[in-house]
């Protein structure tokens, strides 16, 4: 992997991502955000060269392992559902929610559940947990504010996505 020095050498790394779906991974949140660190000069735009390095979920966790996020923030005013973000089936969703925490895996699990996905069906979350980056099992994730069920707003899944919960 070609990893920028700014990622390798930074003191703290904060991942900031909207709530959005993705055809290959179901969700595209904090961990999937790491696809963006791959230099376009090496991997092209939109980082298609990274897909040649292995299964997308494994590449996500590999990239995350170079400098796991010290803090993850999801949400905001808008998200994307369906076959997003660039496919014809993508649609913007107005949804004012913020999900944040020190474990990107747990934050992504809560984000997935809020979006109506089963976190256990998100392969890169399971892989990240196996590598010791945090847990995705919602009963073990401590949350404050609204309960996941109160904040849930099911997003339309990507076409053919089996991991809808």
- Element-level helix/strand string: HEEEHHEEHHH
Give the N-terminus to C-terminus distance in angstroms. Answer: 33 Å
**Average pLDDT:** 92
Structural class: alpha+beta
**Which value, in Å, is the CA radius of gyration?**
15 Å
The helix tally amounts to 6
What percent of the residues sit in helical stretches (DSSP H or I)? Answer: 25-40%
Strand order of the largest sheet: 1-4-5
- Our estimate of the beta-strand percent is 15-25%
Largest sheet: 3 strands, mixed
Taken from the alpha-carbon principal axes, the silhouette is globular
For the secondary structure, the number of strands is 5
Which residues sit in consecutive blocks of at least 5 with pLDDT less than 50? none
Structural features, described:
The chain is an alpha+beta fold. It has 6 helices and 5 strands. The chain has helices spanning 5-9, 40-43, 56-66, 104-114, 123-130, 148-151; strands spanning 14-17, 21-22, 26-27, 71-81, 91-101. It has a 3-stranded mixed β-sheet, covered by helices on one side. Helix 3 (56-66) packs across helix 5. It is globular, with a radius of gyration of 15 Å. The model has no long low-confidence stretch (mean pLDDT 92).
């Amino acid at each position: 992997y070609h990893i920028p020095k700014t990622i390798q050498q930074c003191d703290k790394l904060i991942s900031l991502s909207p709530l959005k779906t993705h055809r290959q991974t179901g969700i595209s949140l904090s961990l999937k955000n790491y696809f963006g660190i791959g230099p376009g000069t090496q991997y092209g735009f939109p980082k298609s060269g990274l897909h040649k390095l292995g299964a997308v979920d494994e590449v996500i966790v590999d990239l995350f392992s170079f400098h796991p996020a010290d803090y993850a923030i999801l949400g905001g005013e808008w998200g994307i559902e369906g076959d997003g973000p660039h496919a014809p089936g993508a649609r913007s969703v107005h949804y004012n929610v913020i999900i944040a925490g020190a474990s990107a895996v747990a934050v992504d699990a809560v984000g997935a559940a809020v979006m109506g996905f089963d976190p256990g069906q998100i392969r890169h979350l399971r892989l990240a947990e196996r590598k010791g980056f945090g847990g995705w099992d919602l009963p073990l994730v401590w949350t404050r504010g609204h309960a996941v069920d109160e904040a849930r707003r099911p997003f339309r899944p990507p076409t053919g996505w089996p991991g809808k919960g």
